[in-house]
Amino acid sequence: MSIDFDVVIDSPEYSIDMKSGLDTLQGVSEATRYIAETILTEQVVQRQSHKSKVRTTLKQSFKGSYGHIYSLDIYDAELDKKFRKIGKATFSEIMTYFINESLYLETRELSVKAQNVINKLGEKTEGLIKQLRISSLENIHEISTKFGHDVKLRYRKNRNDQTTLATFNKSTVQALYAKESNEKLDVTACITRLNINTGNGRLSLKDVSETVAFGFGIEYKAVTLEAKKIFSENLNHNNGLNNEEWIYLKISVKPIKLKDGKIVKYIVKGFYND
After folding, report:
1. What is the pTM of this model?
2. Which SS3 state, helix, strand or coil, does residue 104 take?
3. Which helix (H) or strand (E) holds 202?
């Protein structure tokens, strides 16, 4: 089984610095393999090898902004069978999800099939996200950080049909250096998305349209049943209602911030009904 992607580096000269470009391509390869191997083996791989049963293959370049086609290839009958069951389109959804989660970005609502694959991983999703942040996403951003070029990762259905899965630039790299603040805040928010296997999700502050990631900062199995019910019931109640009918929670949180002070995630420390 093989699935094609491409990497497009927005360089007006159609050429790039070789070292930074190779680092970016390496990061894309690593991220693709980490996501695929975790999904197929249900284990977060720490090291990658040329002997792996899941590998990437660099293919031809193409005209326009500097770009290269590459493929994800499965060299194992059982893993290939699992991948075929997931399907190329669903896998591309999952790629977007994990990259966005790693960069604290919101993902559009997933298909049921993609969500089920992610749910099956349980708390291994956190391990995968941490692994992506260690080096893969830093490498992907090399050409953006040093030369200002945007990078697009695309699923290549065929030569005429490509779907952008993620865009990397000088802004998105800041997420890799976000740090948890020592300050404690009380926020009024409603839950807009919740992974019932990990406790991670997104919330919307009152009178703010953008959503922000949140999590509990501990293994979800250690979170009290009361907290799990409060958060899931809030999501279920507000689903499909007009904003005026939403119920909000008062939540005590510690923010995770970028260097410029922007909050990209809240770590829940306590809560009570508004």
Report:
1. 0.92
2. coil
3. strand 201-205
The CA distance from 128 to 29, in Å, is: 15
> How far apart are the C-alpha atoms of 136 and 84, rounded to whole Å?
25
Which amino acid, one-letter code, is at 91? F
Give the CA dihedral 160, 165, 171, 175, nearest 10 degrees.
-160
DSSP code, position 110: P
Smallest Cα–Cα separation from 169: which of 7, 6, 9? 9
Enter the tokens of residue 220. Answer: 């979800």
CA distances to 60, 93, 155 from 160, in Å:
15, 19, 11
| Distance separating alpha carbons of residues 202 and 193, to the nearest angstrom | 5
Listed in order, the ranges of the chain carrying CATH 2.40.50 are: 179-273
Both tokens of 111, joined, read: 């298909």
Residue 87 bridge partners (DSSP): none
- The pLDDT tens digits of the residues spanning 205-231 come to 998 989 999 999 998 989 999 999 999
* Angle subtended at Cα 111 by Cα 86 and Cα 28, rounded to the nearest 5 degrees: 60
Residue 192 to residue 213: CA distance in whole angstroms: 10
Class of the CATH domain delimited by 179-273: mainly beta
